[in-house]
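Dear support,

Our group has been running a series of protein-ligand predictions, and this particular one with glycine is the one our PI (initials K.S.) wants archived with full inputs and outputs. We had some confusion internally about which version of the output was final, so please treat the block below as the authoritative record. The input we submitted was:
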Amino acid sequence: MKVLVVGGGGREHAIVRALARSPQSPELLCAPGNPGIAAEARLLPIAVTDVEGLVAAAQAEAVDLVVVGPEAPLVAGLVDALQAVGVAAFGPSAAAARLEASKQHAKEVMAAAGVPTGGWTSVDTVADGMAAITSYPAVLKYDGLAAGKGVVDAEDEATARATLVDFLEDRRFGDGRVVVEEFLAGEELSLLALCDGVRAIPLAPAQDYKRIFDGDAGPNTGGMGSYSPVVGIDAAEAQRIATLVHQPIVDELARRGTPFHGVLYAGLMLTQEGPKVIEYNARFGDPETQAVLPRLRSDLLELMQRASRPGGLDGAQLEWADAWAVTLVLAGAGYPERSAAGDVIAGLEHPALDAVQVTHAGTALREDGALVTAGGRVLNVTSLGDGPASAREAAYAAADHITFDGRQLRTDIAQRAVERQQG
Ligand code: AMP
Ligand code: GLY
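Confirmed final output from the archive:
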């Protein structure tokens, strides 16, 4: 059994590790991977958006399953191209992945499927955007892929106008429209579900920390930390939410002839009126995956194989370790505005790190063999514990030993879970 994982971040490192635990003992390849993944899979130097190169490699290597991590290759049609040559793939088609690629499309599918979400208007001029805002804060979302940075909560008119100019006139992310959305108050939840085109089976719930600074201050990032499970969201509640926000989308896309296979990620706000969707992603979350997959006891490889076949998950039961996982993101200097590169990373050999799982995201090997930073989010530290407090303490104790210039680390990851559980 040969599996090719596409991607090179902390999420893909966690996927590779979970696949390595499979009783099927797969041979693992990763394209392009990173220096951390290189210890666990054979790397192929192919960019995630090089669809032709990836298809050719999957054929040449006679790969049994391709697992696609990031959104860009999904939206570029990698899964379609693999299927066209008879290679099985875990992930949605380009048509199904539009749920993530276009916020406006996602809103339209949600409306057709009857999924609860905030009110919205789509605009293509600054004037229309300003006219569409009825109260502050207003949420402005660039209608296209923006690596988690295309969403701004505008507190006032000046910020709203500046953001609309940035997105629509200066075209910071491209020539997409902007969705003006109702601000939803509440706590966020990431609930991911495995989908086989017919049904959605929820994974363990997680919470993600989107803002760069403690106390949820500063700009949005790709995610600065996560933990799983979530106090108050037991298996029955996760199933109830999946019935409300995942299954109707799977049904709607099947009806449209573009069935959803892979991971459907719902970013939710738990409002006083109940859960409302703030976004869908067509893939595993990063860093949620680093906290969720270490707790999975079932064979991830078998589940992915089944999800790639229509209705293949029929009767699937997921088993989870009765433990808590906390993931910290160590980000580079200047993130999220810019990506640092070339800062030497020290401390990874410290014995304190033996007790945790370190996954690599933005790292690179310098010519002299030194490990250096090579991106916004550099490393993740995940710790498992009997409860959120012990998992959290162990993660921070280990992360303290990893140093590099400009290192950014939130100090309040999973603090909420600790307080909830105590209180
Ligand atoms: P998104 O990329 O759509 O998930 O948005 C990124 C982040 O912006 C979310 O995780 C929330 O923290 C915040 N956000 C997005 N939409 C809303 C909304 N309608 N109300 C409040 N916060 C939001
Ligand atoms: N952590 C948020 C995401 O993966 O989109």
